[in-house]
Design goal:
The chain is of the alpha+beta class. It has one domain: Roll (Thiol Ester Dehydrase, Chain A). About 20% of the residues lie in helices and about 45% in strands. It has two helices and six strands, in the order H-E-E-H-E-E-E-E. It has helices at about 15-20, 50-70, and strands spanning about 20-25, 30-35, 70-85, 90-100, 105-115, 120-130. It has a six-stranded antiparallel β-sheet, covered by helices on one side. A hairpin with a 5-residue loop joins strand 5 and strand 6.
């Protein structure tokens, strides 16, 4: 289940597409993607904290769904984040790393950095793994 999946085969959903999120690699253990700051800002021109959290949840959920496997789905049940600094331009990169991959729960730490590798946000996502409806 930890094998890397071709990113072209992974659906990311309308919201993530609208936000400009692009996957660069994906496996159950690690998911990496990018997101532009432009189009995801609050009124003062800073990267919106909600956009960072949506980005984090997208990356972690993709890893959890890969881990869940065929016939199962992962649904987010808890996310929290700490915003360390703002970004005003460029692209941010997020890396979701599994902390725990169980039969019913998967937990990820997601670290978001700017183009200068400065820490923008850290988040933790917990997903419940269920049989697909």
């Amino acid at each position: 289940m930890a094998n890397e999946i071709p990113v072209s085969e992974i659906p990311i959903g309308d919201m993530a597409s609208n936000m400009g999120i692009v996957l660069t690699s994906a496996s159950a253990r690690t998911v990496v993607g990018t997101m532009p700051v432009a189009g995801n800002t609050q009124p003062f021109g800073l990267l919106n904290g909600g956009a960072s959290i949506a980005f984090a949840e997208t990356l972690g959920s993709i890893g959890a769904n890969i881990h869940a496997g065929v016939g199962r789905v992962a649904v987010g049940i808890e996310i929290n984040g700490t915003h360390h600094r703002s970004a005003t331009s460029g692209t941010v990169t997020g890396t979701a790393t599994s902390l725990s991959l169980g039969r019913t729960v998967a937990v990820y730490e997601i670290v978001i950095r700017d183009e200068k590798e400065k820490l923008i946000c850290t988040a933790r996502l917990t997903c419940l793994l269920r049989d697909a409806p």
